[in-house]
Amino acid sequence: MSRLVSAEQIETYAADGAVLLPGLLKDWVETIRAGIARNMGEPGPFASENLKPGESGRFFDDYCNWQRIPEFAAVVERSPAAEAAAALMRSKTAQVFHDHVLVKEPGTAKATPWHQDSPYYFVDGDQNVSFWVPVDAVEEASLRCVVGSHRWPKLVLPVRWLSDENFYADSGAYIAVPDPEAEPEKYRVAEWRMQPGDAVAFHYRTLHGARGNFTDRRRRAFSLRFVGDDARYGVRPGRTSPAFPGHGMQPGERLREDWFPVVWSATRHGDGAAAE
Ligand SMILES: O=C(O)CCC(=O)C(=O)O
């Protein structure tokens, strides 16, 4: 039994592909806020502004910065996130994949498009989890997850957020992006009002999105992504996002630990219970 997540939360995660973990990172809110401020002041090579000219507000995102931003490194290495990830994944290890910052400033109308993360990533396997952690209270602009979509047999076509173009030329292997709002009888959407430091844990194959931020408050969110024992490098029909140029991995290999460190393992930290 994990001290951070209950058996019921682990079951819900496996069945629904998303579960709320209230207060998981409540002691890390100030650290994450400081990391986001540093990240926005010193954006990395993957930073994007996701609005077209004339669209209101600001929607900034950036990823793969935890090794250069000390506040994010502290969250990765010292917060309860990695241990909670291992428990949810039912894995003996939690390897960090990457971090992602998503900020919607007040009055940002743009919705985050419905998507699964898995088609953008070079990771195969079922043991994975992202934690979406707002550091501002959120109501309407919270993460929205389609329950059970992590078990759909086919992946959803990945698209570019700004232009809506297909991410890969070879799109035949994917299903079109569904519109859960247009068919509420077909898709069950889970979403939660959240306090700073709460976390939604969601699977890389879970279809998710978010509304615009129509409030007068910022909506700063930090996503932290882990993989477990069964994760392997897999090839996609084109360049992935993140791309991790020069990674040198071959299909079927474990993610290289010098780039994607194991930050929690049952043998090093625990009693082995995470994998039971
Ligand atoms: O914060 C958002 O608007 C979307 C978050 C997201 O897509 C993610 O964390 O994978």
Mean pLDDT: 95
Order of helices and strands: HEHEEHHEEEEEEEEEEEH
Shape: globular
Q: Count every beta strand, where a strand is a DSSP E run of 2 or more residues.
A: 14
Number of helices: 5
Low-pLDDT sequence parts: 272-276
Largest sheet: 8 strands, antiparallel
Radius of gyration: 18 Å
Strand content is 15-25%
Task: Report helical residue fraction.
Answer: 10-25%
Describe the structure in your own words.
With 276 residues, the protein is α+β, with helices and mostly antiparallel strands. The chain has helices at residues 7-16, 29-41, 70-78, 81-89, 266-269, and strands at residues 18-21, 48-49, 59-63, 93-104, 112-115, 123-124, 128-134, 143-146, 189-191, 199-202, 208-210, 219-227, 232-233, 262-265. Strands 1, 2, 3, 4, 7, 10, 12 and 14 form an 8-stranded antiparallel beta sheet that branches. The longest helix is centred in the first third of the chain and has 13 residues, at 29-41. The radius of gyration is 18 Å and the shape is globular. It binds 2-oxoglutaric acid. 2-oxoglutaric acid binds next to strand 4, strand 7, strand 11 and strand 12.
Q: Could you name the key traits of this structure?
A:
5 helices, 276 residues, alpha+beta, binds 2-oxoglutaric acid, eight-stranded antiparallel β-sheet, single chain
Write the layout of secondary structure elements.
Layout: H1 7-16, E1 18-21, H2 29-41, E2 48-49, E3 59-63, H3 70-78, H4 81-89, E4 93-104, E5 112-115, E6 123-124, E7 128-134, E8 143-146, E9 189-191, E10 199-202, E11 208-210, E12 219-227, E13 232-233, E14 262-265, H5 266-269
Antiparallel strand pairs: 1-10, 2-3, 3-4, 4-12, 4-14, 5-11, 6-13, 7-10, 7-12, 8-9, 8-11
Helix pairs in contact: 2-3
The protein binds 2-oxoglutaric acid.
